[in-house]
Amino acid sequence: MPPRQERGRAGDLLSREVGYIRKPHGGRLRVALAFPNTYFVGMSNLGFQTVYRLFNELEAVVCERVCLPPKQELKAALASGEPLRTIESGTPVRDFDVLAFSVSFEWDYTNVLSMLRLAGIPVRAAARTRHDPLVVIGGAVTFVNPEPLAPFADVISARCAKIKGKVARSGRRCISCSKEKGPELCAPAPKVFR
């Protein structure tokens, strides 16, 4: 979908929403909160909405949402190379400091990979550099079976909101060196996988 058309659709979605948050990006830790399914599935998820609100309550953080494009647009989006963008500002996801996934269902595992590809972020964690966003995976599925996602995440946490808040409060300095500091940053919390 062309960027102008995509922004128009995002604007239409926001015009029908209550409670979305827009904050300036300057000087803040930028978090793209991703739901690996369509917008309507993501917005019916209370955990996703809660994490969005918790991030945006922090003055030093700006959090914007991103969802998987609908099936009829997904193939065209992958073929076009147009980057995945956030709903609130239309900023490319790869420009954020943190890409935080909230994964509720095992059948969305492949959607996580599709979203990474769409964003232009290396799919495997080992291939990422310190210039790529820190990829954090949380959500209900991490209590059940997080291991299949391990090669694709920098951090997986069963205590999603707690870890995400800790990552957010750590500031840009720790995020910029996430490959070296990531495990130590999250070590005190239980059920953290690398």
Word description of this protein:
The protein has one domain (3-193): 3-Layer(aba) Sandwich (Rossmann fold). Helix content is 39%, strand content 15%. The protein has helices at residues 3-15, 39-42, 46-57, 71-80, 109-119, 160-170, 172-176, 178-186; strands at 29-35, 61-67, 98-102, 134-138, 155-157, 192-193. A 6-stranded mixed beta sheet has the order 2-1-3-4-5-6. The radius of gyration is 15 Å and the shape is globular. The model is unreliable at 168-194 (pLDDT under 50).
Task: List key phrases describing it.
194 residues; alpha/beta; Rossmann fold; 8 helices; 6 strands; 15% strand; disordered C terminus
Number of strands: 6
Q: What can be said about the biggest beta sheet?
A: 6 strands, mixed
CATH class: Alpha Beta
Give me the CATH architecture, please. Answer: 3-Layer(aba) Sandwich
Shape summary = globular
Order of helices and strands: HEHHEHEHEEHHHE
Integer count of domains: 1
Structural class: alpha/beta
What is the distance, rounded to the nearest whole angstrom, between the alpha carbons of the first and last residues? Answer: 35 Å
Number of continuous helical runs: 8
User: What's the CATH topology label?
Assistant: Rossmann fold
- What is the CATH H-level superfamily? Cobalamin-binding domain
Mean pLDDT: 79
- Extract low-pLDDT stretches: 168-194
Rg on CA atoms, Å: 15 Å
Strand adjacency order, main sheet:
2-1-3-4-5-6
Question: Into which percentage range does the β-strand content fall?
Answer: 5-15%
Helical coverage, percent range: 25-40%
